[in-house]
Automatic annotation (TrEMBL):
<feature type="transmembrane region" description="Helical">
    <location>
        <begin position="12"/>
        <end position="30"/>
    </location>
</feature>
<keyword id="KW-0408">Iron</keyword>
<feature type="domain" description="Cytochrome c">
    <location>
        <begin position="47"/>
        <end position="135"/>
    </location>
</feature>
<dbReference type="GO" id="GO:0046872">
    <property type="term" value="F:metal ion binding"/>
</dbReference>
<keyword id="KW-0812">Transmembrane</keyword>
<keyword id="KW-0472">Membrane</keyword>
<dbReference type="GO" id="GO:0009055">
    <property type="term" value="F:electron transfer activity"/>
</dbReference>
<dbReference type="InterPro" id="IPR036909">
    <property type="entry name" value="Cyt_c-like_dom_sf"/>
</dbReference>
<keyword id="KW-0349">Heme</keyword>
<dbReference type="GO" id="GO:0020037">
    <property type="term" value="F:heme binding"/>
</dbReference>
<keyword id="KW-1133">Transmembrane helix</keyword>
<dbReference type="Pfam" id="PF00034">
    <property type="entry name" value="Cytochrom_C"/>
</dbReference>
<dbReference type="InterPro" id="IPR009056">
    <property type="entry name" value="Cyt_c-like_dom"/>
</dbReference>
<keyword id="KW-0479">Metal-binding</keyword>
<protein>
    <submittedName>
        <fullName>Cytochrome c</fullName>
    </submittedName>
</protein>
Length: 148
């Protein structure tokens, strides 16, 4: 009772499977493209947020920190730093950031040190706005713990 697969049957399986996989790929791509605007928080992007992102890149913050899981794991994840240090109060968070950035590097023994970047108050506010904006991106509950 052994049934043999003919060349014609194999060709039909190949083309049918390929077509099915292509249709699944197109459907998933279409779904993803439609979900991105709802999840990206791009409607709240301001000039200050863009300036903060530029500071983030120019000062190579990703060289030590992670943001939405991307970057180095030398220093804490900063996607949720607004919730951790600002208690969802933008004014309190900006004040925290002003103090934190001005106090670097801390002289704590046996601890990693963040360099002093000599940012102006306006630059720290822009960086704060970028981190606040980032905290509102839907990243599927990343990071998994509140302390990054």
């Amino acid at each position: 009772m052994t049934e043999r697969i003919t060349k014609s049957m194999a060709k039909n399986i190949y083309y049918g499977g390929g077509t099915f996989a292509l249709l699944i790929f197109i459907a998933l791509t279409f779904d993803t493209v439609h979900q991105i605007p709802e999840r990206s928080n791009q409607q709240n992007m301001t000039e200050n947020v863009v300036a903060g992102k530029k500071l983030w890149e120019d000062n190579n913050c990703v060289g030590c920190h992670t943001l939405i899981g991307e970057g180095a794991y030398y220093a804490p994840e900063l996607m949720n730093v607004f919730q951790r240090r600002g208690a969802s109060d933008e004014g309190a968070f900006k004040a925290y950031m002003q103090g934190w950035m001005a106090s670097q590097p801390l002289d704590t023994p046996h601890r990693r040190k963040m360099p002093q970047f000599n940012l102006t108050n306006e630059q720290v506010d822009s960086l704060s706005d970028f981190l606040i904006w980032t905290s509102k991106v839907n990243a599927n509950e990343w990071p998994p713990t509140i302390e990054g």
